[in-house]
Specification:
This protein is α/β, with parallel strands linked by helices and 187 residues long. It has one domain. Strands 1-2-3-4-5-7-6-8 form an eight-stranded mixed beta sheet. β4, α2 and β5 form a beta-alpha-beta unit.
């Protein structure tokens, strides 16, 4: 199973869902997916925390290929890292949607032969934001297991058409804000 391979390589963090769905050969994951690994910390090969992750990612794996992924990127500059790490595991026509914290305008970018929908993100949980964007509500998931809810989300994303221009990655970089967000939380 692809997700077990990722887990053995310590590429999955903050796991909230990881397992088989009710459909044969289909697995689901929710949590953080490592984009840039931390440096090796000791002689045992243990690593420091990752330098970048897809936060709050939702991943659907069919036949050991990623059929759908969504989540939050802190910086648009991390998008190539995603494709470097995972493009070999992406299914043809995979549905990819990332909320990007430093993006100012929606865009559709093609990299490594895959199209990714990129939407600006200020705050909120990725799952709830995606539900809103796909015009889904809690009734759509009623009675489903946590893993099967990912299938429902993937089906919704498959039919989603973003109101965004298709641009090159270089053009998308011009849509990035230089302003750093304030961190919220306890002081």
């Amino acid at each position: 199973m692809l997700l077990n391979t990722y887990e053995s390589k310590a590429l999955l963090c903050n796991v909230s869902v990881k397992g088989a769905t009710s459909q044969a050969g289909v697995d689901a994951f929710r949590g953080d997916l490592v984009l840039i690994e931390g440096e090796i910390a000791d002689a045992s090969g243990r690593r420091l925390p990752p330098l970048a992750v897809v936060k709050q990612s939702t991943v659907l794996v069919k036949a050991d290929k990623i059929a759908m992924i969504s989540g939050i990127l802190v910086e648009l500059a991390h998008l190539p890292s995603f494709f470097e790490m995972y493009s070999a595991d992406l299914a043809a026509g995979a549905n990819i949607l990332f909320y990007v914290e430093d993006l100012t305008k929606p865009a559709v970018v093609e990299l490594n032969g895959f199209s990714a929908i990129l939407l600006p993100h200020e705050e909120g949980a990725a799952w709830n934001t995606l539900m809103d964007d796909l015009r889904m509500d809690k009734e759509d998931f009623k009675g489903q297991s946590a893993e099967d809810k990912v299938i429902t989300m993937a089906e919704g994303l498959a039919g989603y058409k973003a109101k965004a221009d298709s641009v090159s990655y270089e053009q998308a970089l011009t849509l990035v804000s230089k302003i750093k967000r304030e961190h919220r939380g306890p002081v």
